[in-house]
Design a protein that fits this description.
mainly alpha, about 40% helix
């Protein structure tokens, strides 16, 4: 007869997922960076020659 025994411990019961947390508004620095990036992209598109924008991709 064994001197001691181990009890099988079952994993905790799964709970229902918590309600979705509302997204936090983006930080001020992120917003400023996004604005700079958007303006830079627009300038890049405007400065590129029209022929490059109108070309169709090679198939």
């Amino acid at each position: 007869m064994p001197a001691f025994t181990f009890e099988k411990i079952s994993p905790p019961a799964r709970r229902a997922p918590a309600a979705a947390l509302p997204k936090k508004p983006r930080g001020l620095i992120s917003q400023v960076i996004d604005r700079f990036a958007e303006r830079r992209a627009r300038r890049a598109l405007q400065s590129e020659p029209a022929t490059r924008r109108d070309e169709k991709p090679a198939e």
